Automatic annotation (TrEMBL):
Belongs to the glypican family. It comes from Sitta europaea (Eurasian nuthatch). This is GPC5 protein. The keyword Lyase does not apply. Keywords: Cell membrane, Glycoprotein, GPI-anchor, Heparan sulfate, Lipoprotein, Membrane, Proteoglycan, Signal.
């Protein structure tokens, strides 16, 4: 009643042994692939961890530097500016991690919140506390009035370049782990299982436990078993090429460290521009 290890010569195998062999080849194949993938996965996870730690460190540095700017140069509104600053850097962090948001919306929302503070604390410091309606009116008209000149848009442009590359790299590395995990747990087909048993264990039924299959036979069987996974090869090579492109971009014109470190300067220039045009802004408002 043997289904796989059928020989004309006497055999010591039973159908139950064949079933045990099939379970064994499935287990061995999974363990082999996991062992081969471990080093690659370990390396990618290490890159993800290192990247996230470096990014969070840069983000904290940039946020602390921006907060210090307000505490030293713009003390009258430092306390009220703390929340918009925190929201800006939280939004940037979420963007890098793949949230459905944009750098532009985060930056412009920050400047929307900043305008009422600049208007009431720096341009017209004699104004008493603004009503909620008046404050909201200033927020909503910020883009029309454009109190910060080209500095707000420049900040969007500079951050978008570097943060886009960083976001893509973070997502690409995570995608690599998903692909590896998927290939690790790819199901062994019935045909593959039978071919592996025939190659590895059927000789045992004749007492030939030390004989190993020739290389050509082994490769042919494994090509058949891994045919579905092999289709990933071209896409995986393209994936690696894209990773190389992103890392080169981050090291060149999309340098993350420079972009984040320069945020406080861009904000400062924007506020100074608003102060210099204070009388005109007040008339426009």
């Amino acid at each position: 009643d043997l289904q796989i290890c059928q020989h004309r010569a006497p055999t010591c195998c039973t159908k139950k042994m064949e079933e045990s062999y099939q379970a064994a080849v499935r287990r061995e194949r999974t363990q082999s692939i996991q062992a081969l993938n471990f080093e690659l996965k370990y390396m990618i996870v290490g890159h993800i961890t290192a990247f996230q730690e470096a990014f969070e460190s840069l983000l904290r540095f940039a946020e602390n530097r921006t907060s210090s700017l307000f505490e030293t140069a713009y003390r009258p509104m430092a306390k009220e500016a703390a929340e918009p600053i925190k929201e800006l850097f939280t939004d940037i962090s979420l963007y890098i991690l793949g949230a459905e948001t944009t750098v532009e919306s985060a930056v412009l929302r920050f400047f929307d919140s900043l305008f009422p503070l600049v208007y009431s604390r720096l341009i017209n410091p004699g104004i008493t506390d603004l009503s909620e309606d008046y404050t909201e009116c200033l927020r909503l008209t910020r883009q029309d009035i454009n109190p910060f000149g080209h500095y707000s848009k420049n900040m969007v442009t500079e951050l978008s370049k570097s943060l886009w590359a960083s976001r893509m790299l973070s997502q690409a590395l995570s995608l690599g782990i998903e692909v590896i995990n998927t290939t690790e747990h790819a199901a062994v087909s019935k045909e593959c299982s039978r071919a592996l048993v025939k190659m590895q264990y059927c000789p045992h039924c004749q007492g030939l436990t030390l004989i190993r299959p020739c290389v050509g036979y082994c490769l042919n069987v494994m090509r058949g078993c891994l045919a579905s996974v092999a289709e990933l090869d071209a896409h995986w090579r393209q994936f690696i090429s894209t990773l190389e492109y992103l890392t080169n971009e981050m090291a060149a014109s999309h340098e993350l460290e420079m972009a984040l470190a320069g945020m406080w300067s861009s904000i400062n220039e924007a506020i100074l521009h608003a102060q210099l045009n204070g009388p005109q802004l007040s008339a426009t408002v």
